[in-house]
Amino acid sequence: MKVVVDFDLCESNAVCMEIAPEVFEVRDDDFLYVLEENPGEALHDKVRDAADRCPKQAITLED
Amino acid sequence: MSDIVAPRIVIVGASLAGVHAAQAIRRAGSDATITLIGDETDQPYDRPPLSKQYLAGEWDADKLALRPSKDPESLGVDWRLGTDAVGLDLDTRTVRTLSMADGADEIGFDGLVIATGARARRLPGTEGVTDLHVVRSKADSDRLRAAVDDRGGPIAVIGAGFIGGEVAATFRSQGHDVVMIEAADAPLTRVLDAEAGMLVAERHRAEGVDVRLGVGVEGFEIDDHGDHQHVRGVRLGDGSVVEARTVVVGIGAIPNTEWLGGSGLELDNGVRADSTCLAAPGVVVAGDVANWDHPRYGRSMRVEQWDNGVDQGGYAGRRLLADLAGEPAPEPFGPVPWFWSDQYDWKIQFAGVSGPTKETVHGDPAEGRFAQLYLDVDGAPCGVLAVNRPRHAIKGRQALTAGASVEEIRDTLA
Lengths: 63, 414
Ligand SMILES: Cc1cc2nc3c(=O)[nH]c(=O)nc-3n(C[C@H](O)[C@H](O)[C@H](O)COP(=O)(O)OP(=O)(O)OC[C@H]3O[C@@H](n4cnc5c(N)ncnc54)[C@H](O)[C@@H]3O)c2cc1C
Ligand code: SF4
Known about the structure:
The complex is a heterodimer of chains A (63) and B (414).
Chain A: E1 2-5, H1 15-19, E2 24-26, E3 32-34, H2 44-53, E4 59-62
Antiparallel strand pairs in A: 1-4, 2-3
Chain B: E1 8-12, H1 16-27, E2 33-38, H2 53-56, E3 78-81, E4 83-89, E5 94-99, E6 103-108, E7 111-114, E8 118-120, E9 132-133, H3 138-151, E10 155-158, H4 162-173, E11 178-182, H5 194-206, E12 210-213, E13 217-224, E14 229-236, E15 241-243, E16 246-249, E17 253-255, E18 271-273, E19 278-280, E20 283-285, E21 290-294, E22 299-301, H6 306-324, E23 338-343, E24 346-352, E25 357-364, E26 369-375, E27 381-387, H7 390-401, H8 406-413
Parallel strand pairs in B: 1-2, 1-7, 2-3, 7-20, 9-16, 10-11, 10-16, 11-12, 18-21
Antiparallel strand pairs in B: 4-5, 5-6, 8-17, 13-14, 14-15, 19-20, 21-22, 23-24, 24-27, 25-26, 26-27
The site of flavin-adenine dinucleotide has 36 residues of chain B, from α1, β2, β4, α6 and β23.
C-alpha cells in the first residue's frame, strides 16, 4: 500500500492523524507530513479508515 | 455461519451512507450478496462540492466520485441505479422497486440497510414558479450553474443556512450580485448561536452580499413572456422587492421516508432506530435519514453531516452483520458529530452540539481565526466552533469525546 496525499486539497485538519498517528502528522507549522509512505500490513485498516474519513478526500491509496 | 447460505443484503440509497455500509460489509469479509438500490442514475458522488468547487465550475464531475465506488466493480455489489424503492414489506421481507429500464420488481432480503438520505425542502406554494433552484443533487447543481451562466445575476438566496451561505459565497466570489434573505434575526441559530451566525453574516456583507435578516419571503415578481415566464424579483414580508433573475432556496432538508409508509417502521423525523441503529430485526439505518437514540446525548438525533454519513454507514453495515449472525451488537453508536462549511476563505468547523453559553478559547473572532467552546446548561463542554483553525475542531472533538473538562479544553485549544 502506498499513501499519496493531494496537498492542494488537504486543509491540515488532522482527521487522518487522529485515526492513524503512525502514518500522518500535522505539525505546528500546520502542514501535513506523511511519516510512512508504505505503511505495513498492520496499519492498513487504520490508513483505509483515515482515507475514508478525510473530509477533503485528499488521501489516495495505491496498491 | 458456514452451514447457512450467504445472507442477502439490500441497501436502499446509493450515496454516502449506503456505499460506506456496502464497503464495511465487504471489509468484514462477509460473503453476503449485496444489492445496492439508488434512484439516481449517476454513479454515487460526493455532495459537499455541489455548493462549492463543482458549482463554481472549478471541478469537473470526475472529481466528485465517492471513494469506495470509484471503481464500481470493486465493491462487489449488484448495482440497481435509476431504481426507486417504492415499498417495504417486513413480513415477506421484500423491497418493491420501480425503474424506467426494468419496470416493477420485488427484491427479497435477509438484512436491509436504509440510507435514503434527505431531499431539499421547497418553499410551499411555489410549484411551477420558474427560475427557482435547490441544491441537493448533481443535477440540481448543474441546473443552477447553467441558469446563472445563461441569465446571470442578481441571485437571490433564500435561507442563510450552510448550503445557502456556500452558494452565496460561490457566486459572489465570481462577481455576481447576491442577496441573501433569512427569516430569523441571525443566520445559523438552529445549529450554532446568534453571535456566530452574525459573524458569518458580516463576512458575507464584507464581500458585498446584501444580507437581509428577520424578513420572510412573500412571493415572486414574474415576467410573463407568453410562452414562458421568468422571475424578476422576490417580494419580501416588509413590502420591499429585491431584484433577482435566479433564486436559490436553501431552507433545510426533509428525510426520504415516504417509501416506508405502512411498513410498520416508526417514521418520525426520519426512521427511528435504537442506539445501535437497528430499526427492526434485520433492518438498520444510516446517514441523513436516520433518527437514532444517541447514547451520548440521551435523546434521539438526526445528523445531516458528511462525517456522520461515512461513520454511521460503516457502523450500520457491521451492526447488520452481527444481527444476521445472531452475534451481540457492537457498542452503541454515539460519536461527537462534526461538520465543516467553506465560505470564501473561511473554513468553519463545528464539533458537538451548541449550548447556551460559550467562551473564546483561541484567537480573536474579529480577526476571523478563532476557536470557541460551548457549554451546556450544566456548564459542561458540549461544542467547539473553529473558524480558520481546522485542527482545533478535530482536537476539540477528541476532547469532547474523551469527556475533557472546561480547563482541559481551554489548555488544549489555547
Ligand atoms: C450541497 C450540499 C453540500 C454539503 N456540504 C457539506 C459540508 O460541507 N460538510 C458536511 O459535513 N456536510 C455537507 N453536506 C451534507 C452531506 O452531504 C450529507 O450529510 C450526506 O450526503 C448524507 O449522505 P446519505 O447517504 O445519508 O444521504 P444522501 O446523500 O441524501 O443519499 C441518499 C440517496 O438515496 C437516494 N434515495 C432516496 N430515496 C430513495 C428511494 N426511495 N429509492 C432509491 N433511492 C432513494 C437519493 O436519491 C440519494 O441518492 C452537504 C450536502 C449538500 C446537499
Ligand atoms: S484528513 Fe485529509 S485534509 Fe485532513 S490533514 Fe489529513 S489529508 Fe489533510
